[in-house]
Amino acid sequence: MINGKDIYNTLSALVPMYVPMILAYGSVRWWKIITPEQCTGINRFVAFFSAPFLNFYFLATNNPYTINFGFIAADTLQKLVILGALFLWSAFTKSGSIDWTITLFSLSTLPNTVVVGVPLLTAMYGDSSTSLMSHIFVMQGVVWFTLMLVLYEYRGARNLISKQFPQNGGFITSFTVDSDVISLSENEPLQTEAETGENGEVHVVVKSPSFNKSCNCSTSNRCAKDIFSMRRSFSFNTTRDLRDQGSDRGMSKIHDQNQDAVKDESIVNLKAMGDTEIDESVDRMKHSLSEGKKVAKIEEGDAYNKKQQMPATSVITRLVLTMVWKNLIRNPNTYACATGLAWSLISFRWNIKFPSIVDGSILIMAKTGTGTAMFSMGLFMALQTKIVACGNTWATISMVARFVVGPAVIATAAIAIGIRGVLLRIAIVQAALPQSVLSFVFAKEYNHHTDIISTAVIFGTVISLPVTILYFVLLGLN
């Protein structure tokens, strides 16, 4: 049974985490101590120093050989069930889409494991839960956030192709991405160059917008060549040339001019014809116009079908994996987590410890992680125009996904594979933690449903205290 002391211990662990968040919010909104420009510097400190050191130390000091495969299996099954349901909804319903699959999966399966989860669950269920959280954190970082990155880049690739190659995307056989392109996000429009091979294959080079700045008068010849190259990539035969260069209006105008010429010539000829010849001429005109309309409809249908074409799956896959790799190698947390996990495997296998001077240097930075992360969250809240940015309806949906759907699915998955007792309670409570901040970083980077995810992060963090305590109490009644 849960007693008053247990609840007090939980509050003692969780309430202090909200102090830096409140101070940061007040520093921007109430006291005007920190300017919006200074918030950027603080956030970069968290992203490049305190958070990576925290993640490294967290993984390096937890034994990876004590992994509970049943607990990991329940968490994995929860995410696979939700993801599978969303993919089916996206594939077989008109309301479903890759956009909503990404957002709803993020809302229902990606909790704030380290910053909020570890101190909260340690207070509730003891130090043994810390090791479980480290294993969840590894899976989340290695598998699920990487999967989110894949989905976001896949969405970005589809949008890039549909916007810049709306009619001949199916002919693209390769993509080359310049080193200055970090992601396929829509925050800044990317530039593409395309060339056509001998067999009609289109080879595309993706460049960042900064390429346009170097295209000035002194390089006008190169610019003209680039434009010509892009236009040339749309050329496949005489008829497609006009349509694929975006000259549908030109084609329509030529068609109309031809029809007008036919009409004018026929009117002139009518003055020199008899009644029978007039009737035959009128019939020929009607037949010609009818055939013209059929051709126009066929061309319109071809153009519509061509707009739906995408490159081969292998081409899209290579592009997406290239962008995912470029993102991962630029992220300091990738190196922090990889080296932390590697050191833990070595340390707990051969009982090797850090020298005290190294351990102290890492620890002093790692200890700033939780506090500065919550402080950064407070800055983020203060910079928003309102806490519920997406409106009440989507705020409610996001909270239901975060605090009801996720815990309910993992409870079902855990029970299905035989998990009971304290382990089941830990699984449910960790699924009811507030939204991961990294999910908002992704949403912001790819300019996708930022209002919904920001509401989930901010509002979810605020109400997570009573929600998790409620789960703690209800699950402890037996």
UniProtKB/TrEMBL annotation:
Which keywords are on file for this protein? Answer: Auxin signaling pathway, Membrane, Transmembrane, Transmembrane helix, Transport
What the record says about family reads: Belongs to the auxin efflux carrier (TC 2.A.69.1) family.
Topology in the lipid bilayer is annotated as: Multi-pass membrane protein
Keyword Iron included in the entry's annotation: no
Q: Where in the cell is it found?
A: Membrane
GO biological process, alphabetically ordered: auxin polar transport; auxin-activated signaling pathway
Q: Which Pfam families match?
A: Mem_trans (PF03547)
* Protein name as it appears in the record: Auxin efflux carrier component
Question: What is one term from the GO cellular component aspect held by the record?
Answer: endoplasmic reticulum
A molecular function GO annotation: auxin efflux transmembrane transporter activity
Primary role: May act as a component of the auxin efflux carrier.
Q: Per the UniProt record, which residue ranges are transmembrane?
A: 12-30, 42-60, 66-92, 104-126, 132-152, 362-383, 395-417, 423-443, 455-477
